[in-house]
């Protein structure tokens, strides 16, 4: 079924209609964010939620307890999840998500970070402040340099602290004045199993969880390969998945900084097939 054309006049140029992912990509380019369904079912979503709990417990133990995590502002946060459980590798490489990121970043991009965020009820979280996912940067580019994709393990609602976004702020260098933020900000509500996908330069913030249940999510940041990873995933993974051309490229195996001139040249030779 063909949708009716939007009425207009005096328009000489328009974006051609494409498929569903093209629509999401254009929405993200214009507004700075969009929401897509991952296609995962309830059992798969619940398994991801359980894995988040396991990884956070393990990482807290590595740090000597939750108190130490709290002192560095990491309470409720898990990092580099796919190094601890393969379920997060599958989530990172979700076909619909990767298809959308390809429309936004092109055919070569790398996972910079994958973090879980557990928002406890009535507890302040350091993400509940406006920021960019390329923080401290006050420039804009004509095309996205990075894309973040927040997977909603639980529904994102106004009551449990759904992400707030300032649409179009990825095209504006400074942070807007407070009255402008109040007029423009939108709450990106989304059902469980959705990805909230944003240009990483759009200003956004977590909200306050006013319910009695935790709100869990997994954030991914995909970057063009000249931007460095938050954590060196190839080194942390110690060669795992390096034999899968598609996954290894996403994980950054192809764009590690060489340790020497010889390493640089051998890397180039390897990419040419020896």
Could you outline the blueprint of secondary structure elements for this entry?
Layout: H1 20-31, E1 33-37, H2 42-63, H3 66-71, E2 77-79, H4 87-92, H5 95-105, E3 110-119, E4 146-152, E5 164-165, H6 178-184, E6 186-187, E7 194-199, E8 204-205, E9 215-223, H7 233-237, H8 245-251, H9 261-271
Antiparallel strand pairs: 1-7, 2-3, 3-9, 4-7, 4-9, 5-6, 5-8
Helix pairs in contact: 1-5
**What's the gyration radius in Å?**
20 Å
How would you characterize the largest beta sheet? 6 strands, antiparallel
Domain count: the total is 1
Show unreliable segments.
none
Distance linking N and C termini: 51 Å
Q: Average pLDDT across residues?
A: 92
User: What is the percentage of strand-forming residues?
Assistant: 15-25%
Number of helices: 9
- CATH homology group: q2cbj1_9rhob like domain
Q: Main sheet: which strands, in order across?
A: 1-7-4-9-3-2
Overall geometric form: globular
Q: Write the CATH architecture name.
A: Sandwich
Structural class: alpha+beta
Question: What series of H and E elements makes up the topology?
Answer: HEHHEHHEEEHEEEEHHH
- The CATH topology name reads Jelly Rolls
The portion of residues assigned to helices is: 25-40%
Describe the structure.
With 274 residues, the protein is an alpha+beta fold. It has one domain: Jelly Rolls (Sandwich). Helix content is 32%, strand content 17%. The chain has a six-stranded antiparallel sheet with strand order 1-7-4-9-3-2. The N and C termini lie far apart (51 Å). The model has no long low-confidence stretch (mean pLDDT 92).
């Amino acid at each position: 079924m063909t949708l009716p054309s939007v009425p207009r006049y005096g328009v000489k140029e328009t974006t051609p209609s494409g498929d569903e992912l093209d629509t999401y990509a254009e929405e993200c380019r214009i507004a700075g964010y969009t929401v897509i369904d991952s296609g995962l079912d309830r059992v798969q979503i619940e398994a991801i939620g359980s894995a988040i709990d396991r990884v956070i417990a393990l990482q807290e133990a590595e740090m000597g307890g939750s108190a130490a995590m709290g002192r560095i502002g990491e309470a409720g946060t898990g990092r580099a999840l796919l190094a601890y459980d393969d379920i997060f590798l599958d989530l990172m490489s979700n076909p619909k998500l990767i298809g959308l990121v390809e429309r936004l970043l092109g055919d070569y991009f790398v996972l910079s970070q994958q973090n879980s965020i557990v928002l406890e009820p009535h507890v302040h979280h350091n993400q509940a402040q406006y920021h960019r996912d390329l923080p401290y940067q006050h420039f804009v580019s004509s095309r996205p340099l990075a894309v973040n994709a927040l997977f909603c393990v639980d529904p994102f609602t106004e009551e449990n602290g759904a992400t707030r976004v300032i649409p179009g702020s990825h095209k504006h260098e400074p942070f807007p004045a407070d009255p402008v933020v109040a007029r423009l900000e939108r709450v990106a509500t989304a059902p469980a199993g959705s990805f909230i996908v944003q240009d990483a330069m759009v200003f956004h913030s977590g909200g306050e969880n006013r319910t009695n249940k935790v709100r869990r999510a997994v954030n991914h940041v995909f970057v063009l390969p000249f931007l460095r990873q938050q954590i060196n995933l190839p080194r942390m993974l110690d060669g795992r998945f390096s034999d899968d051309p598609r996954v290894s490229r996403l994980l950054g195996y192809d764009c590690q900084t060489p340790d020497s001139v010889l390493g640089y040249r051998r890397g180039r030779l390897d990419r040419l097939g020896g």
